[in-house]
Design goal:
With 304 residues, the chain is an alpha/beta fold. It contains twelve helices and nine strands. A five-stranded mixed β-sheet has the order 3-2-1-4-5. A hairpin with a 5-residue loop joins strand 7 and strand 8. The radius of gyration is 21 Å and the shape is globular.
Length: 304
């Protein structure tokens, strides 16, 4: 198959998965592929492995491989979680595989979510997935941001934060500080395959020792299910998470009644009903995803 003319590549790399889009020369999407997490908090090498896997899968949908890419580096906009600090950004750029002919512009995944959700218009976006970051685009082009600090200090209300609160509830229950017999602790024990044998606590310690933000975020669906089933501990966690989103919004726009708010990411649907009334009144549906935001950025970069 002849290699189609490409404008470039857009990438959305988050704490749970990576999505990659090939953009045709006319600016339209050509193919997409997915890979594993690409959060730079876990290192640049895993991020590049996820991106490479996503690129291979995108190319395979049009019967191509990386060997078919042109030698001239392709313009690439990579919106990657954990890329706000200078060191991981430098590591990401320095460790790009030599076999990938990409001319990479690295941006934060929150910035891409903001652009995608509001299609470049003013307003506030809170991205609550594995992590949490909130951004506001002002009419004069300025962008303000809150949170995005990562665990354990930040990312309040995120899937990872919810998982941490749930694990704390489980630990208090298991060691007797606070008995919390109920659906949440039972479901967490089942999810972590703890059982009731003599070495269950040792398995739990091993899980905690190796746990990453993605590991904690993987427990968030268990909390959401327990919340919907009426478990008090799960309900308290989800309410706290919603309050964290409220705090982020108010910190950015001061409860401006004219400011649109979009809540996006894997936890958006679970948290939106728990937001403060003033925030819920201003909610708008996201017009696109972080991958769409990276695509918009790519088009502006290449077609300007």
């Amino acid at each position: 198959m002849a290699v189609p003319a490409l404008l470039g590549i857009a990438i959305d790399g988050g704490g749970s998965q990576t999505r990659l889009r090939l953009i045709a020369a006319d600016g339209t999407p050509l193919a997409e592929g997915r890979g594993g997490p690409a959060n730079l908090s876990f290192g640049a090498a895993p991020a590049w492995a996820a991106i490479t896997a996503a690129l291979d899968r995108a190319l395979a949908t049009i019967d191509l491989s990386c060997r078919d890419l042109p030698a001239q580096p392709l313009a690439t906009v990579a919106a990657i979680a954990g890329s706000l600090a200078a060191t991981p950004r430098a590591d990401f750029v320095a460790t790009k595989p030599a076999a990938l002919p990409l001319d990479v512009e690295l941006i934060g995944d929150g910035e891409a979510a903001l652009t995608g959700a509001l299609a470049g218009e003013p307003g506030t976006v809170v991205a609550v997935g594995t992590g949490t970051v909130a951004l506001r685009a002002h009419a004069d082009g300025r962008v303000a941001m809150v949170d995005g600090w990562g665990l354990p200090a930040g990312d309040e209300g995120s899937g990872a934060w919810i998982g941490v609160q749930a694990i704390r509830e489980l630990l208090r229950h298991r060691d007797g500080r606070r008995r919390a017999d109920g659906l949440l602790v039972e479901a967490l024990a089942a999810t972590l395959d703890l059982g009731d044998d003599a070495v269950a606590d040792e398995r739990l310690r091993e899980w905690l020792r190796a746990a990453t933000s993605s590991s904690y975020a993987s427990l968030a669906p268990t909390v959401v299910e327990a919340d919907r089933a009426g478990d008090p501990a799960a309900q308290a966690i989800i309410v706290q998470a919603g309050a964290a989103v409220d705090l982020a919004v108010h910190g950015l726009d001061g409860n401006d009644p004219a400011s649109a708010v979009a809540v996006v990411g894997g936890m958006a649907a679970a948290l939106s009903p728990h937001l403060a009334p003033d925030v819920r009144r201003r909610l708008v549906a996201a017009r696109g995803t972080a991958l769409d935001g990276a695509t918009i950025r790519l088009r502006k970069r290449v077609l300007r």
